[in-house]
Amino acid sequence: MATRIMLDSTGPADVVQLEHLNVLPPAAGEVWLEHSQVRELTHGQGVDVASQHAAVALYR
Questions:
Q1: Rounded Cα distance, 19 and 40, in Å
Q2: Torsion angle, CA of 56/19/23/59, rounded to 10 degrees?
Q3: How confident is the model at residue 18 (pLDDT cuts 50, 70, 90)?
């Protein structure tokens, strides 16, 4: 499981839903980040992930 985050250029990232992302490759427009990068995006708060190998799909 990974946390899918919707990026908003006018404010902080909003967590919109949890879903399995290990079945399909990233869709067009998505970028997968390591957990440490997610921590930077969320200003040190990080995200709740079910596995340390989870990736995060970010929409730009």
A1: 21
A2: -40
A3: very low
